[in-house]
Amino acid sequence: MQYIRKGLHLMVLVTVFAALLSNACAKNAKNKEENEMKDLTANKVKVTLHTNQGDIDLELWPDMAPKAVDNFVKLSNEKYYENTYFHRVIPDFMIQGGDPNTKDGDRSNDGAGGPDYRFEDECYAGAGVPYTGQIVSEQLAHQVWQSIIMPYMQSAPDPDPEVKAVADSVMAKQSGQPIMEKTFEFFSEKTGMPPLMDNSNRTLKHPVAYETICMANSGPNTNGSQFFIVTKKEGCNWLDGKHTVFGKVTKGMDIVHKIEALPRDTKDNPNQENQAIIQMITVKK
């Protein structure tokens, strides 16, 4: 009996020690990640959007979103944004611009343009874990639809017939069940799109907050040239993790709010006679 009690006592001590060690490791990892994130806004690139409504000064954060910042600076230096206008403005939400289609005089294609490439989101610190195996819920099916199927169908000139059949079935049934009959691997392999990631254990770098400038997209990892500036004072937490935040307005929010209030059509595109046009972008060294 004495040996049994000692053995049980030792097992309890080992279990407690293991739990304490695990908690300590998790805490250290979290502290390390938080420390690494503290200075993500310390390095700044200063930019000014010169518009016909007034100037908007920005600071961009290359440590937080290097690809988004590099892309924005590159396109600005190439004069890509010159003579484009903010094609989507919604009071108490945001103003969106950066679409080269706004130069062509055809308002029907505003919001659909961009460069001939796409790059990935930079919303989280650390690496996510790809979903694998069977798609077991309507919620996950909806995410596959939004993140993989729709962007693929919109961009593929000759879509894979099996994926197209699933998409047609979803539309006909108005249900995610046809998606749930396949696996995550099926959609990644057939479309060549990045796998759907589980970000539940990752740390958000920055919320989609008031005054921030963020990448606009048509789904995960579809960033191009379009961006938006948040005008909602409380921020847009429903967009957190869905749009890369890469800087903020430092001066000129009065101009942003002026643009936000421009009279607009039913598609939230400011009327032709009062567009907010980006005349030039200055990148300060």
What would you report as the Rg, rounded to the nearest angstrom? 24 Å
Kindly state the mean pLDDT as a whole number?
Answer: 89
Spell out the helices and strands N to C: HEEHEEEEEHHHHEEEEEHE
Tell me the total number of β-strands. 13
Distance between the termini: 77 Å
Q: Please give the count of helices.
A: 7
Beta-strand content = 15-25%
Tell me the overall shape. globular
Query: Runs with pLDDT <50, length 5+?
Result: 1-8, 10-18, 28-35
Q: How would you sum up the major sheet?
A: 9 strands, antiparallel
Q: Order of strands across the biggest sheet?
A: 3-13-1-2-12-10-11-5-4
What share of residues is helical? 25-40%
- Class derived from helix and strand content: alpha+beta
Word description of this protein:
The structure is a single chain. With 285 residues, this protein is an alpha+beta fold. Helices cover 35% and strands 19% of the residues. It is built from 7 helices and 13 strands. It has helices spanning 2-38, 66-77, 138-155, 161-173, 177-180, 184-191, 253-260, and strands spanning 45-51, 54-60, 84-85, 88-90, 94-97, 124-125, 129-130, 197-198, 203-204, 212-215, 227-230, 245-251, 277-284. A 9-stranded antiparallel β-sheet has the order 3-13-1-2-12-10-11-5-4. A hairpin with a 3-residue loop joins strand 4 (88-90) and strand 5 (94-97). Helix 3 runs parallel beside helix 6. The longest helix has 37 residues, at 2-38. The radius of gyration is 24 Å and the shape is globular.
